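Progress report, Aim 2. The chain analyzed during this reporting quarter is listed below.
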Amino acid sequence: MDDSAPGGPSEPNSVGGEAPPAPTGPTTTTTTSAASASSSPAAPPSRYESQKRRDWNTFLQYLRNHKPPLTLARCSGAHVIEFLKYLDQFGKTKVHNQGCPYFGHPNPPAPCACPLKQAWGSLDALIGRLRAAYEENGGRPESNPFGARAVRIYLREVREGQAKARGIPYEKKKRKRPTTVTVTGNVSVGPSIAAAQQGGDAAASGGGDGGSTGQTTAAAPAAVTTTTAAV
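Predicted structure tokens for the chain:
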């Protein structure tokens, strides 16, 4: 557009007009900081998060391959138990049958034909990860199939059965409780405190009658100190 045209030159802020020059200084610094922040690599997921994602994808694949196929909304605790039993074929823990001569033997001296299964600890940790992944992917806690009562009962039966078959009891860790220790003894008086007491006695004797004599301060009574310590 010619500046000599009627109406004069276009305003900088009008549509189609010339844009004002880009400010310098703080804007340039902000752009540089944003560029450097976007170029920095994101922190990799933790080992727990990576394993949880793999477990979740494995379960979804199991639902797709199920006969008939299942959707996550129709999944129940019974389907979760079927999934855990399906994983037993990939287990590496020897679980002796009741007819095996090594039943209840923690260290069998020879191999046997008993099957390999998933260890109870692995299944328990797997259910914990899938339970968290279910809610992280939009599931409601009250309808979480991994927290169903039937799943908890199944895991308890697996724990007790493997404990008997392997001769390795699973015991719950006992929580440590703080204990109270009472220490009784005489309290020793430091040099500075003893000197202050003697000075106070001398002042008291000097301010009284001339025939009065200074009296020593009685020994401090025994003190009981109570200390609470965590064992």
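The chain has six helices and four strands. The radius of gyration is 39 Å. These observations will guide the mutagenesis work planned for the next reporting period.
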